[in-house]
């Protein structure tokens, strides 16, 4: 057992590994919700941003709490059938950063700048603070900090690396264009 991420009673943390087009994604959580999603550190990503059928749980499938089941289902849909993510429940989240209220930047396939997000939060000069909040996001992809870009249009930094951020943005843009056809 580990201490609850909220500082309350201990929770029994479980882990699951999802093999995705980006590599091994490690997901941890408990019965109360997802604690963290760790993206792979990689310099090699698949060519193109087409949906992939290659996305499956490879470790930890036994005794997976419901929030982890929902998280893996949501991520598999994101990579394999992106149009279906809207019909799936977003898993419960169980992390202290998320208890303070977390923004969900942008709509699928659309980017927003750090400055625009700061404006939405009511402080147009807080773009650097927005960047700091995005850096500390424990639940990437589900809380889509990859959609936050620089005002110049450059992708900016990302915990999973700039190549991964650009792949995620391309993946979403391609899927959005296909749905519009």
TrEMBL record:
GO biological process, one term: methylation
Subcellular location: Nucleus
CDD domains documented for this protein: ATase
Catalytic activity: a 4-O-methyl-thymidine in DNA + L-cysteinyl-[protein] = a thymidine in DNA + S-methyl-L-cysteinyl-[protein]; a 6-O-methyl-2'-deoxyguanosine in DNA + L-cysteinyl-[protein] = S-methyl-L-cysteinyl-[protein] + a 2'-deoxyguanosine in DNA
Keywords: DNA damage, DNA repair, DNA-binding, Metal-binding, Methyltransferase, Nucleus, Phosphoprotein, Transferase, Zinc
GO cellular component: nucleoplasm
Official protein name in the record: Methylated-DNA--protein-cysteine methyltransferase
Lineage of producing organism: Eukaryota, Metazoa, Chordata, Craniata, Vertebrata
Encoding gene per record: Mgmt
């Amino acid at each position: 057992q580990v201490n609850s991420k909220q500082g309350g009673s201990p929770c029994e943390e479980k882990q699951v590994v999802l093999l995705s087009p980006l590599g091994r994604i490690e997901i941890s959580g408990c019965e109360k919700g997802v604690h963290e999603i760790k993206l792979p550190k990689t310099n090699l990503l698949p060519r193109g941003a087409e949906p992939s059928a290659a996305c499956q749980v490879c470790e930890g499938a036994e005794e997976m709490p419901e929030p982890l089941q929902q998280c893996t289902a949501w991520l598999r849909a994101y990579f394999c059938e992106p149009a279906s993510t809207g019909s799936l429940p977003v898993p419960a989240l169980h992390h202290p950063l998320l208890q303070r209220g977390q923004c969900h930047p942008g709509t699928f396939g659309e980017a927003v700048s750090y400055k625009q997000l700061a404006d939405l939060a009511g402080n147009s000069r807080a773009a650097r603070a927005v960047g700091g909040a995005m850096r500390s996001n424990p639940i990437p992809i589900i809380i889509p900090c990859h959609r936050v870009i620089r005002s110049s249009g450059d992708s900016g930094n990302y915990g999973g690396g700039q190549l991964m951020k650009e792949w995620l943005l391309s993946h979403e843009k391609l899927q959005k264009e296909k749905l519009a056809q």
